[in-house]
Every structure is written in structure tokens, then in C-alpha cells.
Design the sequence.
């Protein structure tokens, strides 16, 4: 049986994350994993993530705030996990690169294996050094005059005025952001990952689908375009830094004292160390091997487009370069990397510093997380940048979720409650068989089948549209059959058609509750509660058609409730105004 190891890019523990991040890497993964658990079996799916807790941005910000590094990342780890909880995004293991006890050993082992197999290069170069604090200064610790436009507050890596990437050594009149002193250039030794060599020794063949031992699903156009351009000008990449916080180089590496692994190098190893942590928590410490070294594992990375280089070129290179270092077995390589583009807000980029963001506390205190999940998926930036719009969110909630799904459940269950005293009706099997061929029900079958097909292909927007189309077909069936008229007929045949209509609608509502579950787990659970004893009719897999085949008579139904509350125009107008005022106040 194929096993799916799913990851989402480790969110950086240096500030809050927002809806844009959720749309890019976390919500699609959560929906995909929920689908896989139902369709493939929960034992065949593992979803790991955690916070990325090392790097210059963290050390600089923590020092500026007067906090120790661990306290700083702990705060943001808690904040980030809190947003995932509100969105209903769940992981088998959510760890962090500074909190997982397996991470240092795993990262150092990666370094040693690459070193021993000849995939690292050692170089000595000049870097700015603060004599006042006796430490080398990474680019983010520097400010000076831009060599391109002479702006006097350029950073050591980029000029915010002209947008030019800056070589820190070319920065004029540099100043340390730690204490304002003027640094000097001093030689320092670092190690580089030899990506060109790794491309020749397996990365290129794997990427092109020529490695039978490491199959690929195929690449999205945005991924392929980026990687092909990168391959044309592939360079060695530094993997160490002079920093006081991070994974230290292994003992015995000459010249490695006081140096740590570059954050981009150790971060993806966090997927492996989190799996080790999960395995240990299960009481099976060696179980991680079946996921990371099993021939039947499909490794799927959900990321934003800014992470394509690391997940399709760098991390696969690191995995390939391990060769047989891990008890003689090779590591799995990514099977799919469904990278998304950027998700914006009302025509502009999300920006907490500019006040252009959705306040998480306010949003979830006033709006339904399930509706947010569905809308974000339906507007996800799969092939191009997209955006969250308050007006479109209202349309999704009201016209699609409330009218197409919530209204259907309400109509059917209220009718059954009134006409059949809150129980499933007794039906004539021949009449039910005849209704199975109704055009609307056959359309519902096609659309609900397409939901799974699109999820399998990681086409989330299409899967949302198929779910809505299937629900619309069920509403059309209910309207076309007009059970309220059939129930009043003196003709026994007409009344039998009424019973069969309600039986079919209840059967499809049970199916709909399962199809809805990956997207809106809360609403799906409420719908299943309304269905009462009919909620356990699934025959075979949780995802299969199951109960659509037949609903026994006399099963108790619960009362119909509200699945999705509608949002009025005034509320939406107030939110748009709130966003503008928030941005104005920040400015």
C-alpha cells in the first residue's frame, strides 16, 4: 500500500503568520491529508510540520527586544500554532527545529554524510567583523550606504530604496546594528553545498523522471519554469554561518568551532527530525525509517513559490547526497511539490507592518472557520497570484455554502421531520431504483466523484467547484421532484415517489457530509449529527459512495440546524472600513 508523507513549509518563528501563508502551504495540505486519511486509510498518511527557529532574522530581532533566543521563538511558536488551531489545521506532529531533541543529531549527520561523500566545498572569504563584540556580522546585522544608489540606510543584503541585492562586502560605511560600531573585514571559513556536482550525480535524472527508484508525480508549470531557470545557472550554496544560535557543526570538523548550519540547510531536515519525534511518541522510535526510506512512500511538500528552490533543488540534493549513510539505505525524494503563488488581500499584498492584514483574533471571533477554509481553498493561488476579498468571501458563504449546502440539509430534514416524524421513510425499492437514473442524481454522482479525482491531483479549486456543483444538482433534484406536492397526493404511487425522493436526499446528504469533511470539518460534523442514525451508513471506505446505495426505514433523524449563518452587507462594509482604518493607523 502506498504511504503518503506530507509536509508543509516550516513557518518562520519570527512573527505572526496570516491568511496568505495559510492559503499557500498549510490549508491545502490539511485538506489533502484529510482526504487521504478517508480514501487510503489513516495508517497510510503522516503529516508533519513545525516552526523554523534558527537564523539571522531571529537572532537580530531577539537581541533588539532584549530576549533570549529560546524565549523569542517559543512565543512565536505558540502564536503560529494558535492560528493553525483556529483554522482547524491539524498535524500528526508539529515540532520546531530548536525544540526537537532529534534535530541537532539529524542535521549534523546530514552535514557529515555530504562532507564524506565529497559534496561540500570549503572556502575562506572576508566578512565584516565587530571588534567591539568580537563576532562576525551576518548581512542582516549591517546597515550602510548602498553601492548602487547611495541610500544611507541600505541593509547588508538589500537596499530598500532601489531594490538592489547587496553584497555585504560592497556596502559603504557599514555600521553594526548591535552597537553602532564600524566593523572591519576579516577572513572566515565556510562550507558550500556543491549543487552542480549533485545535479550531475542524480538530481537531474530524478527531476526529469528518469530515476525509477524515485518516481515523481510531475511538476506544476510554475515549479518547472523556476527550476529550469535555476538549473541553467546552478552554483554552490553556503551552508554555514558565524552565529551564536543554531545547529553547531559536528565535532572534529577543523575550523568549525563557533559556526552553525545555515538556517535554510537545517530547516528542511526538520521534516525528518519531526518524524523521528512522532515515531518516538508512538513508542516505535525506528518507525521513521519506513516513511523516509520506504520504497512505497510518496513525499509531498506543500510550499509557497518562494520555497521552490529549497524543496525541488536544494533539499532533494541533500537527500541524494546522503547515499547509504543512514544504515545503508537511501532516503526518499519528493514525489510532488504543489507550490502555490502568492495570496493577497483586497488588491494588495498582506503586510502586518503596513496594517494590511486580517486580524486573526477579530476574524475568528466574528466569522466561521469552516467558511474561511472553503473560501480560501476556492480562491487559492494555485497557478497565479490570487486574493482574499471580503465581498467574495460573503458570496462563498451565502450563495454557495449557506444556499447550496445548508439550505438543502434544512429543507430535506425539516420535511422528513414533519412528514415522517423525524425518521427515514419506508420506500418501494423499485421506485428508488428508478430515481437513481434521474439526471440530477447522475450529475451529483459525477461531481462528487470528481471531488476525489481533483483532490488526488492536488487541484483544490476544481475540487471545491465540483463539491458545489454536486450540491447544486441535489437541490435541483429536490426541486424537480416537488415532494411537498407528492406528499399531498391521493395517489399511492405519488406518495411512494415522495418517500423515495426523501430517502435519496438523505442518502446523498450522508455522502455530502463525507465529501464536505476535508474542507469544513466542523460543518460536516454538524451535518452528520443532524442525520442521526444515518451518519453511520458508510459502506466500505469513508470516502466511497457507501450509503447512497440504500437507507433503511425507521432510522431516527435529528433536528435540522444552521450549517452556515449568512453574512449581511453591513457586516462586510464594516470589515472593509476596518481594514482601511487599520492600514491608515499603521501608516
Sequence:
Amino acid at each position: 500500500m502506498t504511504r503518503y508523507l506530507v509536509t508543509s513549509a516550516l513557518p518562520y518563528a519570527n512573527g505572526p503568520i496570516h491568511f496568505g501563508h495559510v492559503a499557500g502551504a498549510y490549508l491545502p495540505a490539511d485538506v489533502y491529508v484529510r482526504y487521504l486519511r478517508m480514501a487510503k486509510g489513516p495508517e497510510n498518511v503522516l503529516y508533519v510540520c513545525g516552526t523554523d527557529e534558527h537564523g539571522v532574522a531571529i537572532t537580530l530581532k531577539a537581541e533588539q527586544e532584549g530576549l533570549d533566543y529560546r524565549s523569542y521563538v517559543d512565543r512565536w511558536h505558540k502564536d503560529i500554532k494558535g492560528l493553525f488551531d483556529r483554522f482547524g489545521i491539524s498535524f500528526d506532529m508539529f515540532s520546531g527545529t530548536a525544540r526537537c531533541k532529534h534535530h541537532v543529531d539529524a542535521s549534523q549527520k546530514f552535514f557529515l554524510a555530504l562532507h564524506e561523500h565529497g559534496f561540500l566545498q570549503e572556502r575562506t572569504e572576508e566578512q565584516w567583523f565587530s571588534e567591539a563584540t568580537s563576532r562576525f556580522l551576518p548581512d542582516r546585522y549591517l546597515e550602510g550606504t548602498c553601492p548602487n544608489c547611495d541610500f544611507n540606510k541600505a541593509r547588508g543584503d538589500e537596499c530598500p530604496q532601489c531594490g538592489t541585492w547587496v553584497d555585504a562586502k560592497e556596502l559603504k560605511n557599514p555600521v553594526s546594528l548591535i552597537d553602532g560600531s564600524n566593523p572591519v573585514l576579516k577572513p572566515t571559513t565556510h562550507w558550500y553545498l556543491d549543487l552542480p556536482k549533485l545535479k550531475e550525480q542524480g538530481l537531474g535524472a530524478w527531476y526529469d523522471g528518469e530515476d525509477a527508484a524515485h518516481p515523481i508525480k510531475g511538476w506544476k508549470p510554475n515549479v518547472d519554469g523556476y527550476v529550469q531557470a535555476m538549473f541553467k545557472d546552478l552554483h554552490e550554496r553556503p551552508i554555514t554561518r558565524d552565529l551564536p544560535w543554531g545547529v553547531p557543526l559536528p565535532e572534529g570538523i577543523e575550523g568549525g568551532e563557533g559556526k552553525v548550519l545555515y538556517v535554510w540547510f537545517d530547516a528542511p531536515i526538520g521534516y525528518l527530525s519531526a518524524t523521528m519525534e512522532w515515531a518516538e511518541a508512538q513508542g516505535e522510535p525506528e518507525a521513521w525509517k519506513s516513511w523516509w526510506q520506504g520504497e512505497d512512500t510518496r513525499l509531498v511538500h506543500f510550499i509557497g513559490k518562494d520555497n521552490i528552490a529549497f524543496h525541488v533543488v536544494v533539499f532533494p540534493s541533500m537527500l541524494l547526497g546522503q547515499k547509504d549513510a543512514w544504515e545503508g539505505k537511501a532516503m526518499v525524494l519528493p514525489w510532488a511539490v504543489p507550490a502555490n503563488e502568492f495570496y493577497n488581500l483586497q488588491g494588495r499584498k498582506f503586510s502586518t507592518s503596513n496594517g494590511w492584514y486580517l486580524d486573526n483574533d477579530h476574524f475568528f471571533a466574528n466569522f466561521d472557520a469552516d467558511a474561511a477554509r472553503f473560501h480560501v481553498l476556492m480562491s487559492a493561488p494555485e497557478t497565479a497570484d490570487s486574493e482574499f476579498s471580503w465581498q467574495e468571501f460573503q458570496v462563498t458563504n451565502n450563495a454557495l455554502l449557506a444556499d447550496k449546502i445548508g439550505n438543502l440539509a434544512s429543507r430535506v430534514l425539516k420535511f422528513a421531520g414533519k412528514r415522517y416524524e423525524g425518521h427515514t421513510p419506508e420506500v418501494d425499492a423499485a421506485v428508488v431504483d428508478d430515481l437513481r437514473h434521474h439526471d440530477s442524481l447522475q450529475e451529483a454522482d459525477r461531481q462528487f466523484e470528481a471531488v476525489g479525482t481533483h483532490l488526488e491531483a492536488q487541484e483544490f479549486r476544481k475540487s471545491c467547484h465540483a463539491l458545489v456543483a454536486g450540491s447544486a444538482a441535489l437541490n435541483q433534484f429536490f426541486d424537480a421532484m416537488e415532494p411537498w406536492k407528492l406528499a399531498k397526493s391521493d395517489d399511492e404511487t405519488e406518495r411512494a415517489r415522495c418517500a423515495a425522493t426523501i430517502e435519496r436526499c438523505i442518502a446523498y446528504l450522508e455522502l455530502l457530509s463525507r465529501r464536505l469533511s476535508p474542507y469544513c470539518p466542523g460543518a460536516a460534523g454538524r451535518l452528520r449529527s443532524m442525520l442521526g442514525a444515518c451518519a453511520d451508513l458508510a459502506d466500505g471506505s469513508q470516502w466511497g459512495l457507501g450509503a447512497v446505495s440504500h437507507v433503511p426505514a425507521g432510522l431516527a433523524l435529528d433536528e435540522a440546524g444552521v450549517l452556515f449563518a449568512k453574512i449581511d452587507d453591513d457586516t462586510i462594509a464594516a470589515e472593509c472600513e476596518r481594514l482601511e482604518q487599520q492600514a491608515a493607523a499603521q501608516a
